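Supplementary notes for students who missed Thursday's class. We covered one full example, reproduced here. Read the sequence, then the structure, then the short commentary at the end.
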Amino acid sequence: MGYFSPGDVVLRREVLHGRPWSVMPLRVVEDGPDLLVTFSVPGTVLGFPPHHRPHGWQLKGNTVWRGHGRLQLHRPDLAYSVDLFWHGPQRRFAGWYLNLQDPFRRTPEGFDTLDHELDYEVAPDGTWQELDREDFERQVVEGKYSAEQAESIRATGREVVAMLTAGTTWWDPAWARWEPDPDWPVPVLPEGWEDYPQP
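Structure (token representation):
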């Protein structure tokens, strides 16, 4: 399977218990053997296929991406993405957000993954904090993750903590100065997106 080109629209599917759980069209910023970078364009509408467990964003009415957008850095086989956010009218860099998730799996339309709830927030000055541990453990009890999956996620969390504590982060700080192409229109879900092949 080949790489995508800058500006391409790809679909990021979250897959839970073998079925698509949420679908979001993204713009490709960079793609290659070592790094996939995507951008969530403000105003993008998310899709939620029928599922026995409704998506949390869907339940909260969060169906449109807002703010300045989200840049995501993905490395192959890594069980988290590094997300960048900006705030305010001056588009101030807000920091790095390590979003634990399944390693991305390429598809003809984009890639599949699954958010793991547990996250780590890194401020521009390098200080960091863990987020959503209680929510993650609750979801384990509720059956969102198997015991084996849960332990793998906890192990990834420990690896992230060791990296942040040692100050050995791998991403290029220059991404904090990145700006989206102003000519990029808001991507939309393609016709028939609900009927794409199952994972």
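Commentary. The mean pLDDT is 93. The CA atoms of residues 22 and 48 lie 5 Å apart. If anything here is unclear, bring it to office hours.
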